[in-house]
C-alpha cells in the first residue's frame, strides 16, 4: 500500500490537539494525538437564512448588485413599481437612495458604492434611463441605446455589459462609464438568463422565452459570444452571483414549469449541482462574488406571493449558524406591562397587568429554561422599569391602573426587596439603563399636562436627582440599551405625532442624534450596548414603514446604522425583555395573540465556528 | 402546493419551537393558538409533533376573528380612563396573510 506522502508529496503533520483553524487549513490533513484520529478542515457549502428585506418592500424582478456582505437590491415590482434601493451589509438590510426612475426587470452591475442600473420597465413602459449609485444616491447619466427589460448584465460601473431581454432579445451593449456602444449579439436570444463576469469575459446561462426555457451557456470575449457547456437544468428568472468572475459563478432559483430551488456552480467550463435554496422562488435578486459566496433575496412563488426572504450561500470551513428565536419557558403569571432586567439565562421580571385588568406584584426569575416565582414586589404596579442584574437590580416608577404614578423605587437582591428613594419626576413607560446603584432614567409618561416628559434623572442607589440635561424631545415608551454613561435609545412616542424614527446616544452628560431607525416604534423591547443593540416588536406604524401594531420585526443597530434582523415568532407589545449586554436576549409576556401572554422567546445571534472533521474509512 | 399550512397548537414553553425549527421553516403565531407554518416537510412534521390540529386558512381566520372580537368587546367595556392609558389600544383585527 502506498504511503500518503508517496501519493501527495507531503507528510501528515502530527499535533497534540487540533490547530487553531483558519482558511489556510482547508483541505489539509493532520493527525490528532489526543483523539488518535486523522483530522481535516473540510469546506461545507450551504444556504442559510438571512434577514428579510424591509418587509414593506418585498419585491421581485429587482436588480442585484455587489457581494454577499455589501449588496444592493434595486427597484423591482412589489404592489407596484419600486423605486427604493436597499443595502445589505452581511447581516441585514437598510434603506439606500431611491432610483430616479422606478422600474423592474432592470439591468445592474458594479458594487454597493459604485453601482449601475440601466434600462428596465417603468410606469411609462420600457425606458433607456441609466443611473449610477455612489453609495447613497443615484444620478442620471447617459441613456443606453435600446430600451428593454428582464435581461442580463455584469461588470462594473465603468466597464458594464448588458445583454438579452424580453422579446426575446439578443442584443449586447457595453458601457465605459460615460458612453454606450453596441457589442456582439447573443447566439441564443433570451430573457432572464443567469449572468456574471466582466465586460471582456462575460457569462450568460439559461433563460426564457416563456414558451420554453434554455440551458444554453455562452461566453463573451469583449466582442462576440461563443456557446459553451450548458447548465444541468434549463430554467429562467433565477439569480446569479452577479459580481463574480465567470470562472467562479453561482446560479440559483428560477422557473422551469414551476418555481425551483436548484443551485448550480460554474467553474468556467462545467456546471455542477450545489446545495439548493431553502425556499423555491423565481424573479429573485442575486449578489455575490464567487461560487462560494452569494446572496438571494426577494422573488415570488407560483401563486404570485412576493417574498422579502433573504438567503446566504457560503462555502467555508466555518460552520455558520444563523440568528434565530426559540421558545423559552412560560411565565407562571401571564401578563403585559411587566418589566425585567438581567440576561437570557439569569433574569428577573416584576409587576404587570393581569386578567381581567388589574395590576400584579408578582416577580419571577428565569434560569435559561424555566421561570420560578420569587418574592413579590412590595406594590402592585405596571409599566415601571428595571435595570441591573438578577441579583442586584431596581424596579422604579410605573403606574397603578388606571392612573396613579407613585414613583417608588424598590431594590432587589435576588431574594427580597427593599425600598429606595422616590423618583424626582414620577414616570411610567420610560427608558432606564445602568446598575442598581448608578442608573439613569429617560423621559416617560407622567399622566398629566403634556403627558410625556423630556426629564432625565439619575439614581445613586438611594436617591434620585434631576439631571441638568434633557432628552432632545419629549418622549414616552422609548427603549434603551447600554450603561449609565453610554446609552443608545430609539423609538417612543409623543402624540399627536407618529412614533418617531429619530434615535439618540447619551454619554453620561449630553445627547447626540444618531441614525434614524428603519421604522418608528414604541412599546417595544431592546437590549445590547450603545454600539450593538437589538430593538424588536411593539407597535411599528405602517406610516413609518412598519407592519403595524404588535409587530414581529426585529432591528439591529451596529453603532452607526440600522439593519433588519430575524423576526420574532409572535407579534406583541408591552412585553418584558432582558437587558443583556450582548446579542443573546429574551422577550416574555406582553400583549399579542392574547392580552396577557405567558410565553417567552429567546434570541441567539449568528455564530461562525471553524470546524475540523474526523476522517474515517467508511 | 399552498405556501403555508395552518394549525392550532398550545405553546408549551421551552422546546415548543427551537432555533433549528425557525431556521428550517417559516413560523408565525397568531391569536387563538393559531400557527402559520411554512409548508415543507420540516414545518408539517413540527405541527404534527406538537399535537397541532391542522386547519384551513378560513377556519384559522375564523378562530382568530372570534378571539379578537372577544378582546375588542372586553376593551370596549373599559372605562374611558383605562382606554386612554398609553399602550392600551383597542385590539386590532388580525388578517392572515
In short:
Chain A has 618 residues and is mainly β. Chain A has one helix and 58 strands. Chain A binds chain B through residues 48-49, 301, 303, 305, 321-322, 324-330, 337, 356-357, 369-370, 383, 399, 401-403, 428-429, 445, 451, 476-477, 493, 522-523, 539, 548-550, 552, 566, 569-571, 573-574, 591-595, 599-600, 604, and chain B through 3, 11-23, 27-34, 67, 71, 74, 78-79, 81-82, 85-87, 89, 91-92.
Describe what you observe in this structure.
The complex is a heterodimer of chains A (about 625) and B (about 100). Chain A has three domains: about 5-40, no CATH class; about 45-320, Neuraminidase (6 Propeller), CATH 2.120.10; about 325-605, Neuraminidase. In chain A, the strands form 16 sheets. Chain A has a four-stranded mixed beta sheet with strand order 1-2-3-58, with no helix packed on it. Chain A is mainly β and about 625 residues long. Chain A has one helix and 58 strands. The model of chain A has no long low-confidence stretch (mean pLDDT about 90). Chain A starts with a helix and ends with a strand. Chain B has helices at about 20-25, 40-50, 55-75, 80-85; strands at about 5-10, 25-30, 35-40, 55. Chain B is built from four helices and four strands, in the order E-H-E-E-H-E-H-H. With about 100 residues, chain B is an alpha+beta fold. Chain B is elongated, with a radius of gyration of 16 Å. Chain B is about 40% helix and about 20% strand. Chain B starts with a strand and ends in a 14-residue tail after the last helix. In chain B, strands 2-3-1-4 form a four-stranded antiparallel beta sheet, with helices on both faces. Chain B has one domain. The mean pLDDT of chain B is about 90. In chain B, strand 2 and strand 3 form a beta hairpin. Classes of the chains: A mainly beta (about 625), B alpha+beta (about 100).
Helix content of chain B: 40-55%
Helix content of chain A: under 10%
Please state the overall shape of chain A, judged from the principal axes of the Cα atoms.
Answer: globular
Instruction: Say what oligomer this is.
Output: heterodimer
Number of strands of chain B: 4
Order of helices and strands of chain B: EHEEHEHH
- The DSSP helix count of chain B reads 4
Q: How many domains of chain B, as an integer?
A: 1
Strand content of chain B: 15-25%
**Cα Rg of chain B:** 16 Å
Average pLDDT for all residues of chain A: 92
